[in-house]
Structure formats: C-alpha cells, structure tokens
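re: that chain from earlier
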Amino acid sequence: MEKFCFIILHYGDKTVTQKCIDSILKLKNGKNISIVLVDNDGTKTKAERQKLKSFFEEIDERIRVLTIKENYGFSYANNMGYIVVKKEIQPDYVIVANNDIVFGQEDFLRSVHESYVHNRFVVLGPDIIQQESGFHQNPLDYNLRSKKQVDRTIFLNHIALRFFEVIFPFVYLYNKWMKKKKVDMCQHVNRISHMMEDFVPCGACIILSKKFIDEEEKVFSPETAFYYEEYLLYYKCKKNGYRIVYDPNIQVVHGDGVATANDRKTEKRKTSFIVKNTLESARIYRAEVYGNNSVENR
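^ sequence. v structure.
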C-alpha cells in the first residue's frame, strides 16, 4: 500500500493546527500515513515549544514534531521538513500544507493515488477552497511573472517601503475596499471543474509524487522567506519537464485570513511585512529566472 506523508507548517494558533491534524487522522485508509509537523513559530519560548511538541506527539504515534530554531520563513521551514521526510520516511506521496488547511474529503488518499494513476503527475494542485470567501485558489496563475512585471513589483515595493509612513493610510483604505470587492467577485467566480496541467499551483497545499521526491533535494528553491515560492516551483518544474496537474476531484478547505484581526495597527504590521518580503522575494525570483541584469532601484 502507498505511503503518504504530510508536512504541516505550524505557526501561531495551536487550535488551528490541531484542526488540520485531526482532519488528517480521520482520513480513510490512514494506516500508512505519517505527519511531520514543522514548528516554525520562533516567537514562542523554548518551554512553550517543547509543550507543543509533547502535545502533538502524544496524540498519535504517526506524528513527529520538528522544531526549527532559525526563523527563515516559509520555504526554509518546509524544506527542513521535506529533507527529514525524504531521508527517513521515503513515502510515495508528500503533501505539503499550511496549518490552516482542513482535509475534509474522507477518501482524499485514494483520490490522490487514483489521480496519479490516471495523470502521472509530478506535482498536483488540488481544488483549494478559501473558507471565508468560497474562492477557489487553484490555479494561482498560468504563467511565470515576466521580467517587466517583476521589475515593476520591485520598484513599487521599494518606493512603498521608503515612504511607508506616508503611504500606509492610503494603502489601508485601499485594502479594505479590495477585501470587500474580492468577496463580491468570488460570488461570480466559477470553479474550474476539469482536469488541467501547466499552471502555477497555490502553495497552501501541494502534493508531490515519487519522481519529485526521488530527484529533488528541496521543495522550494531558491528559498524565499515569503512570496514567490509557487512561481519558483513552477519555474523548476518547467525547467525539468515535471508535469503539474490540477485535479478538481481532490478538495481541501483553506482557512486563510479567517482569524486575522482587522484593526489598523494589525494591518500596518501586516502591510509592512508584505512589502518587505515581496521586495526581497521578487529580487530572488528575478535573479533565478532572469539573472541580475534588470535595472535596480536607486
């Protein structure tokens, strides 16, 4: 029987992670699953992190908690979990997911294997349904970001970071308007109901087959702290001829943003975080895909 391993990236609320873990443990035919929970929450004390580790490892023998000391972000933490899985578990499938993903489809494991039998994917993107809006997050995009697009992103975020205190009040109002607009738009967006391939997969939940596991040392490389991970994964797949498949028969629910407070102070921290990391990640992406010949900001 096929072996499945889930890499779950934990940060923040333990109850969110527990809901994710509980949904995995309820899956049908789950005897051959294992879970590597990567604790990437460096804001917690050593005692708190040890308590978290003990709590989850005592739930089920199939759970292992890996505590990451260096908080280098999304790519690094997931890669550390993947390295352990590749070396010690050697499964047929790896599911890399955020801790706010819920696997509510009871026959999820069977559906993944059946999709592989029919589609021979290297990377699989499921139908990811955003809990708050009902928005379907896959496919994330259909093409790489062009050199012109990424240079524009670098320029705008560079300016936004330099003049952040002046710009933020306008960004705050714009974001509030966009959130409402996005919810309204989601009511008119239809889910893609057919299988397709060659697209940028949403990083909230990515499924890897044996070919990827055998050939790749890391999931996300080069590593970015946050943002552009999916585009770099897509670039890797295009470069190596890996087949990326979207299968609407496999569904998960994503709780992204549900528990985030919507006050001005929180929004300011969040916006600053996004601007800084988008700028750095865009530069890494540009260097990897297009080299360092683009015009730098002064």
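Confidence is low (pLDDT under 50) at residues 257-262, 294-298.
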